[in-house]
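Record now logged for everyone:
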Amino acid sequence: MAERAVVQGEEAVTESKKPTGSTARPVLDPDAELSDATRKVLLQALEDPRRYVGRPANPLWAAVPLLARGGAGVAAAAVVWRWTGGLEIADPASDSSTLVGAQDQLLQKAVDLVHTLLAVWPLAAGVVAVLCAGLVADRALYNGQLRRLAAAQQHLVHPRDLTADAQELLARAQRAMTAVLDSKVHREQWLDAQRNEAAFPRQAWAIAHDLRDYSRVARKEHRTPQETDNATVAELLTSRRRVLATSLHGIERRVAALEAYASQVAEADARYAEVREIERLAAGSDELLDLLARTTADDLAVAEIDALTDEAAVVASTFTKALESAKQAAAAALPLQDAA
């Protein structure tokens, strides 16, 4: 048992050294009252940041290029159609058996064919008008999406809004919450899964929102001259930096509580795996124990059975303690849910 624990401890250390994603993800306010259309636009913008760029513009400008080119083409076709309608090259009374007469007849047929083909210019004008209307409507829809996206930005914290140290804190918090949600003890309802799933989005938003406020002030502070000969100004600058550090430390304490919760959950997961392994071995050992009881003394068989039972009890007790520690860590890491 001790050897097994050492091996599992080494595996846990190896697992902790594996690289994990350090990139923070955008955080949306879970309590934001956003329409489904706005949420869809926001999701599309996060997946493809280049999809929605620029500012809302007059929709009519979207149709100007097509209207200019298409309108010019339709106008030219109408002019040529009207001109060819009254154009007579061949004299009906001329003799078509002569070379000149035959050429005139061919040219007249060509002109008549062009005139017939250009007779569809009103239809072409209608197509251009429909296409222009479609471009105007599409631009109006795009403007609406841009406005919805702009309105939703106040409910979204993007990593680019944060300083480097704030991004790292947000990434740590998100990794801790993901580790809890991916754990077996969470998925199999050994923990308060509903509480985790309800509290984590609000915890993530509270941390991200505070980190955004911190980052905004920190960037302003960074642009402020850091050295001065005036003692009063120097003291004020020092005080401002101290306030910033205190603010960041307070957020880091919340992140550390989430990481402690994730660590306890990982410990409970490991103990749970041991319990399941013991149960599996015990379930398949009935025949072995029967054989042992028939081929050895009764006291040896009883001792073997008792040893297996004691080992299972120890592991189960360890799992229970680890699970209780995880629940206590949850109470410390999720105070907002308790307050709600």
